[in-house]
Design the sequence.
């Protein structure tokens, strides 16, 4: 019964992020009416590409949106967050580059093999996190602190300290645009990962099981659901998301730098989940809210840079705005607004009843 009530309020989760997005859009339109204009230019490869702040926002937020989807599942199932996604993403990039170097020429088959192997490696590290959380019942943030601390060192051991260059039209096509298609390729990666999640939820009961485990693990077990398996599955799916984001990050720059690849993205991913209206304590979740939260964060960042805010101050301004958004979407504020709204409706109903009685 409780689960049904939470699921039925899913649409309400999007109110705060949609309002925040609308405010950012209106603010930018007043500040610069051409902020969202889209143009066409020719890149260094001679291909036509779409340009403009809107395209830049959607493109730049791709890695964050992908990781936010996986983070949402771990949060929903485990009631905690994985803070090692950026560091493990560096391992993913290192494995991808190592495979390409070992195979010599960069071709479509070698890239496919590289993606598969880096995906398997990332899943293995995420299963390590998942085992600590689900089997040994370590709090998720503490369990993932291990790889948060050492994963970039592991990436260094895999590929050394050199910033490996990947000069290939295939790599450029993955990280930037495909020939003849002006839309950045990472945007399609977000769509594909989102479609994968949609199909999983469509043809399996994973959404229901994940929410059940997150809301009440004991009750879920009594109903025949294996909480350990559900938590491990959530970490496996997060591993796939991290590996895809790591490959995109490497291909976007055309090189591997384990020190900067996906650095600090775990904090933005957690914020995207929170801004999207998802419960950080587990249970109810909505992937569309997390994706929307990722684009809100990127739009806020782009807006601050457009206002010529110094890069050193961007994080401080982002923190202020995000605090406002998160507090506005907190259960305390939501309950207060709901109470006020119900009182207004009750008062309006009494006034109408009195008018009808007089007439």
Sequence:
């Amino acid at each position: 019964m409780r689960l049904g009530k939470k699921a039925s309020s899913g649409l309400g989760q999007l109110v705060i992020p949609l309002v925040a997005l609308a405010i950012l859009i209106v603010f930018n339109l007043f500040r610069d009416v051409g902020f969202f204009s889209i143009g066409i230019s020719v890149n260094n490869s001679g291909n036509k590409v779409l340009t403009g702040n809107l395209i830049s926002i959607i493109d730049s937020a791709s890695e964050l949106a992908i990781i936010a989807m996986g983070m949402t599942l771990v949060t929903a199932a485990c009631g905690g967050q994985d803070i090692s996604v950026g560091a493990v993403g560096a391992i993913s990039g290192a494995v991808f580059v190592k495979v390409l170097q070992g195979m010599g020429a960069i071709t479509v088959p070698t890239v496919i093999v590289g993606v598969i192997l880096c995906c398997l490696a990332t899943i293995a590290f995420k299963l390590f996190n998942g085992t600590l959380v689900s089997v040994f019942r370590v709090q998720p943030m503490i369990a993932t602190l291990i790889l948060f601390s050492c994963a970039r060192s592991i990436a260094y051991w895999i590929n050394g300290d050199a910033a490996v260059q990947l000069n290939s039209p295939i790599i450029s096509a993955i990280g930037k645009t495909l020939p003849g298609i002006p839309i950045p390729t990472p945007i399609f990666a977000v769509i594909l990962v989102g479609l994968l999640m949609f199909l999983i939820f469509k043809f399996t009961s994973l959404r229901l099981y994940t929410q059940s485990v997150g809301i009440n693990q004991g009750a879920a077990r009594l109903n025949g659901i294996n909480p350990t398996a559900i938590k491990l599955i959530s970490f496996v799916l997060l591993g796939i998301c991290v590996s895809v984001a790591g490959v995109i990050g490497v291909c976007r720059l055309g090189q591997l730098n384990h020190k900067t690849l996906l650095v600090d993205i775990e904090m933005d991913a957690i914020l995207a989940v929170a801004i999207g209206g998802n419960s950080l304590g587990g249970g109810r979740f909505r992937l569309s809210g997390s994706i929307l939260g990722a684009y809100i964060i990127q739009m806020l960042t782009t807006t601050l840079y457009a206002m010529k805010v110094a890069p050193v101050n961007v994080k401080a301004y982002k923190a202020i705005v995000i605090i406002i958004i998160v507090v506005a979407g907190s259960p305390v504020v939501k309950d207060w607004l709901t109470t006020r709204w119900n009182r207004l409706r009750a008062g309006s109903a009494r006034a109408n009843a009195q008018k009808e009685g007089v007439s």
